[in-house]
Amino acid sequence: MKTGLIEFLFAPRANCLGCGSLLGADKGLFCAECFAALEPLYTQNASESRICRHCGEVMAGPRCPNCHRTKAGTLKAVSAYDYEEPVRSLVHSFKFRGAWRASRWMAEEMAKALSASDECTADVIVPVPLHKLRKLERGYNQSEKLASALSAIIGIPVENALKRVKYTKQQALLSQDARRRSLQGAFAAVRPLDGARVMLVDDVRTTGTTIVRCADALFEAGAQDVIAVTFASALLTVPSFKKYSPDKGIKLEKPPKETDDF
Which pLDDT tens digit goes with each residue over 182-236? Predict the structure, then answer.
């Protein structure tokens, strides 16, 4: 009995990455309530979209609803989930709190989204880079971890073919237009990519600015095609952010300062 009590008290435990509740010794990612709240886009035929190559806005027709351009061109973007709870809390834990155990499952979901959109072919997977000072501050690049996990699943090699050459302010403090100006010229390719089909990987697509600026650098290096693959994507016009709790329901709160465009 004493041995059993000790094993219970010191058994490895994990918290739900959605609501924070104690999961026990199974080391899973979500509690049953948060897992039931997940709504994959690939099961709704909604994982694929086109975004404006000038501003990153989702385009449903020939004209961008944000910058109103018709000849800016588009990028294909694939996401597994909307950036809503409990996915939002999972991403924050993965990105800012070192919850790396989520990387394999996140990459599996991204692979399912790619399969649903018939976009599993590319020559190389390229993670969105962090500036070296930001990476030193955080200790890791979450996009690199996702890219490595995705590579192991779909068999496409990973290469750090982009670098961040410009250190920018926290993008959450800037307006959409200021973000676009801030990230102009922030990325550069490290080698020629003549004719390459590139799969660009990041954790979240919010305004789309990071994606289109990275794509600019890839195309300048000679890439033939770029497809952006993220675990989650957010709408540009969100009046408030939702925080999910299976016990307390959904409440509205001010958006946090963290953003994908660091």
Answer: 788 889 999 999 999 999 999 999 888 899 999 999 999 999 999 999 999 986 4
> Are the beta carbons of 214 and 183 closer than 8 angstroms?
no
Of the candidates 201, 212, 179, the one whose C-alpha atom is nearest the C-alpha of residue 79 is 201
The answer to whether residue 29 sits within a structural domain is: no
- Of the candidates 199, 193, 259, which has an alpha carbon nearest to the alpha carbon of residue 232? 259
Burial class (CB in 10 A: 0-12, 13-18, 19+), 235: exposed
Give the global pTM: 0.81
Answer yes or no: is 171 within a domain.
yes
Q: What is the number of other CB atoms lying within 10 angstroms of the CB of residue 95?
A: 22
Query: Is 140 part of a structural domain of the chain?
Result: yes
Domain coverage including residue 84: 41-253
**Domain count of the fold of the chain:** 1
Question: φ, ψ for residue 243 (rounded to 5)?
Answer: -115, 125
> Which CATH number does the domain housing residue 138 bear?
3.40.50
SS (H, E, C) 87-118: HHHHHHHHHHCCCHHHHHHHHHHHHHHHHHCC
SS3 assignment, position 158: strand
Segment 246-262, tens digit of pLDDT: 343 333 333 334 444 44
- Asked if residue 25 is part of any domain, the answer here is no
> Closest by alpha carbon to 174, among 262, 56, 51, 240?
262
Site of tokens 């410009």: 166
